[in-house]
Write a structure and sequence with these properties.
alpha/beta, Glutamine Phosphoribosylpyrophosphate, subunit 1, domain 1, Rossmann fold, 2 domains, 4-stranded antiparallel sheet, 11 helices, 30% helix, elongated, binds iron/sulfur cluster
């Protein structure tokens, strides 16, 4: 029964470490949980007389529900015919929302921590233009996650924005495909250059992040082959140097392009005319959320939780 479900969760949740959100149902109640640090988002929506839970508020728009509020880090909400009851099954812990939800993971039409993701990404691009200006003819996004930052960069710099790469809408995200072979093939299946926008142009190419670098390197080659006379790469987050143990499939440290390379070495590897990453402080400010409430481990190496078994991505799953 309901009491047993809530009692069971209250008993077992304090033993869980790492990143998780749960939605659990029985006959009379719907229970939503965010881990003690709130690595991943979870929102409550109102749908007619009922309530719904979703990991992103954009899902509410699609189903005709309205955003009500976020489940807080470490909070368990019990939803039943009496309404919403808030329970605190964990010891109080500092909030550590994944910063990459703002950079890449969340949909641009979602609200997270009260902030619109698209607007936050535009602000990242504006900050990047101020921090790392370039002399160029066009600003071109890497679709789709680089689009808002490229719009921000173009608006702040006054350099015209152009769609120089076209996305094949039938192929998924290369970032989360598990096999390297799939990723190697992925860029050619995923993007096609628009030669008329690139040929003879000095291009500022804007992307949100570089993880392994293999797709970015192919992309630079593609832009040069389409006739670009210079490629200035601007990344709207800092170098991704440390593996994630909280649900992002980034592999171990040896696979990360920036793990042991300087920005100059990365620029040489990628064959770009210049390369700049957005500074961490500027990224945090661009989110519009409280800057001390984020996990930044993959960028800073400061992990919010102990990592028990070396640096394998399943370290926390194995405990
Ligand atoms: S390590 Fe990076 S990707 Fe993983 S939860 Fe922290 S900020 Fe997000």
């Amino acid at each position: 029964n309901e009491a047993n479900l809530v009692e069971a969760l209250t008993a077992v949740l304090p033993t869980f470490e790492g990143a998780f959100t749960l939605a659990v149902m029985d006959r009379t109640s719907l229970v939503g949980v965010r881990d003690r640090h709130g690595f991943r988002p979870l929102s409550i929506g109102k749908l007619g007389d009922g309530w719904v839970l979703a990991s992103e508020s954009a899902a509410f728009d699609i189903m005709g529900a309205t955003f009500f509020r976020d489940v807080e880090p470490g909070e368990m909400v019990v939803i039943d015919d009496r309404g919403i009851t808030s329970v605190q099954p964990f010891e109080p812990s500092p909030a550590r929302m994944c910063l990459f939800e703002f950079v890449y993971f969340a949909r641009p039409d979602s609200l997270i921590a009260g902030q619109n993701i698209h607007a936050a990404r535009r602000h990242m691009g504006e900050a990047l233009a101020a921090q790392a200006p370039a002399t160029a003819d066009v600003v071109v996004p890497v679709p789709e996650s680089g689009i808002p930052a490229a719009q921000g960069y173009a608006a702040a710099s006054g350099i015209p924005y152009r769609d120089g790469l076209v996305k094949n809408r039938y192929v998924g995200r290369t970032f989360i495909e598990p096999a390297q072979a799939m990723r190697d093939m992925g860029i050619h299946m995923k993007l096609n250059p628009l030669r008329q926008e690139l040929n003879g142009k000095d291009v500022v190419l804007v992307d949100d992040s570089i993880v392994r670098g293999s797709t970015t390197r192919q992309l630079i080659r593609m832009v040069r082959d389409a006739g670009a006379s210079a490629v200035h790469l601007r990344i709207s987050s800092p170098p991704y140097r440390w593996p994630c143990f909280y649900g992002m499939d980034t592999g171990d440290r040896s696979t990360l392009l920036a793990a042991d390379r300087s920005v100059e070495e990365i620029a040489e590897y990628l064959d770009v005319d210049s390369l700049a990453y957005l500074e961490l402080d500027a990224l945090l400010e661009a989110t519009g959320a409280a800057s001390d409430g984020f996990c930044t481990a993959c960028l800073s190496g400061e992990y919010p939780t102990p990592i028990p078994n070396g640096d394998g991505k399943f370290a926390l799953e194995e405990t």
